[in-house]
Write a structure and sequence with these properties.
Strand order of the largest sheet: 3-2-1-4-5-6-11
Bound molecules: nicotinamide-adenine-dinucleotide
Order of helices and strands: EHEEHEHHEHEEHEEEHEEHEHH
Number of strands: 13
Shape: globular
Distance between the termini: 39 Å
CATH architecture of the largest domain: 3-Layer(aba) Sandwich
C-alpha cells in the first residue's frame, strides 16, 4: 500500500496497459488522474472507477501536462501512438511519442515529482545480433515508432542527468491480456488470433510464422511499473520487461486454438512492412536482481485468462459471427 494517498498521473490510462495500471493504483489507494485523448483508449476501460479524475486531453499540450504534473507525486507515461499509426504518420508519432515524454520531463524538472516512469519498447533493439537481448545491447531503429520510443528514453536520461529528474525506463516486450480489445485495429497478435478463432475463422499469420516473440502478461507488466516507481534502485535505470521465453507465432496460434477449442489450419499471408523482426527474446536478469520483479503468469495461463475475459465479452457461439461492436474515437469500428 505504498501508493496510499499518493497523487499519481497516468497518461494513456484509458488504453490497454494503462487501464490495468490505473486499476491497480486505485486498489493500492492512490489518487489517480488519467490524461488520455481516447485515440485508442476507451473510457469504458476505467469508467467504473468513480474515484479517479479523467482529463480528456493530449500529452502534446504542454500547458495541460504541466498543470497535471505539478500536482503529481508519480507520473506514468503510457500515452502512445502505436506502431501502425506511427508508420502511417511518423509526424504524429514524433509529436506524441517523443513530444509527450518531453513535455512531462520538461514539467517535472520544475516540481518535486518522486518518479517519472517511461514505458518504452523492445522495438528499440531492432533486429538483435544476440539472444536473449540485454539492456546494453546495440539499439537500432527499424521504424519511426522505435525511433520515437528511443528518443523518449534519451530524453529521460538527459533530464535525469542534467536536471535531476528521477526517471525509470521499462522496455516492454509484447504485452497481452485483459483489456487488449481485438476491435482495436492496432491490437497485438494474441487478441487478433483469439478474435479470429472466436469468429470461427483461422488465425491469420503474416509471413511463415517462424518469427518469435517474448510475450508478457499485462498484470506482470503493471507490477514492473509499480516496482520501477517505488524502488530507489530503479532511478536512472532501464529494464527489459519480458519472460525470457521465446515463442514462435506458429506455436502461439496452436496454443490459442487449443484454448479456444478450435482446430483449423492457420492462413498464411504476406508480411507487413512492420514485420521485420525475425526473433526476439529478452534477458530479464537485471530487473529480476535489481527490483526483485519476476513474471508470474506463464503463457498458457495468460492465454487462458485472456480467453476467459474475451469469452465474457463476446456473446457468440463456437463458429458464429457477431463480435461486440465497439467504436473508437478515431472512427474505427469492429
Ligand atoms: N502493448 C504492447 O505490447 C507494448 C509493447 C511495448 C511497449 N508498449 C508501451 O506501453 C505503453 C502503453 O501501450 P498500450 O499497448 O497500452 O497502447 P494503447 O494504444 O492501448 O494505449 C495508449 C493510450 O494512449 C492514449 N493516447 C494516444 N495518444 C495520446 C495523446 N496524444 N495524449 C494522451 N493520450 C494519448 C490512447 O488513447 C490510449 O488510451 C506505450 O508506451 C507503449 O509504447 C506496449
Amino acid at each position: 500500500m505504498k501508493f496510499r494517498n499518493k497523487k499519481v498521473l497516468v497518461t494513456g490510462g484509458a488504453g490497454f496497459i494503462g487501464s490495468r495500471l490505473v486499476d491497480r493504483l486505485v486498489e493500492e489507494g492512490a489518487k489517480v488522474t488519467v490524461l488520455d485523448d481516447l485515440f485508442t483508449g476507451r473510457k469504458e476501460n476505467i469508467g467504473y472507477l468513480t474515484e479517479i479524475e479523467f482529463v480528456n486531453g493530449s500529452v502534446t499540450d504542454f500547458k495541460l501536462v504541466s498543470k497535471l504534473v505539478k500536482k503529481a507525486d508519480y507520473v506514468f507515461n503510457l500515452a502512445v501512438r502505436n506502431i501502425i499509426v506511427s508508420t502511417a504518420s511518423p509526424q504524429l508519432d514524433f509529436q506524441v511519442n517523443t513530444g509527450g515524454i518531453f513535455n512531462i520531463l520538461n514539467a517535472a524538472k520544475d516540481y518535486p515529482v518522486e518518479r517519472v516512469v517511461y514505458t518504452s519498447s523492445v522495438s528499440v533493439y531492432g533486429n538483435p545480433k544476440y539472444l536473449p537481448i540485454n539492456e546494453d545491447d546495440r539499439l537500432y531503429s527499424l521504424n519511426p515508432y522505435a525511433a520515437s520510443k528511443q528518443s523518449g528514453e534519451n530524453y529521460c536520461n538527459a533530464f535525469h542527468e542534467t536536471y535531476g529528474v528521477s526517471t525509470a525506463i521499462l522496455r516492454f516486450s509484447n504485452v497481452y491480456g485483459v483489456n487488449q480489445m481485438p476491435q482495436n485495429p492496432y491490437c497485438g497478435v494474441i487478441s487478433k488470433f483469439f478474435s479470429n478463432v472466436m469468429e470461427g475463422k483461422p488465425p491469420l499469420i503474416h509471413g511463415d510464422g517462424l518469427q518469435t516473440r517474448d510475450f508478457t502478461y499485462v498484470d506482470d507488466a503493471v507490477e514492473a511499473v509499480l516496482k520501477a516507481a517505488l524502488s530507489p534502485k530503479a532511478e536512472g535505470q532501464t529494464f527489459n520487461v519480458g519472460t525470457g521465453f521465446e515463442t514462435s507465432i506458429n506455436h502461439l496460434a496452436q496454443l490459442i486454438m487449443q484454448i479456444a477449442g478450435y482446430d483449423v489450419d492457420p492462413v498464411y499471408v504476406d508480411k507487413r512492412d512492420i514485420d521485420n523482426i525475425r526473433r526476439r527474446v529478452v534477458n530479464i536478469e537485471k530487473i529480476r536482481r535489481t527490483l526483485r520483479w519476476t513474471p508470474t503468469v506463464t503463457l498458457s495461463k495468460g492465454l487462458e485468462k485472456t480467453y476467459e475475459w474475451l469469452a465474457s465479452l463476446y456473446p457468440v457461439k463456437k463458429g458464429s459471427k457477431g463480435l461486440l461492436k465497439v467504436t473508437f474515437s478515431n472512427g474505427f469500428r469492429a
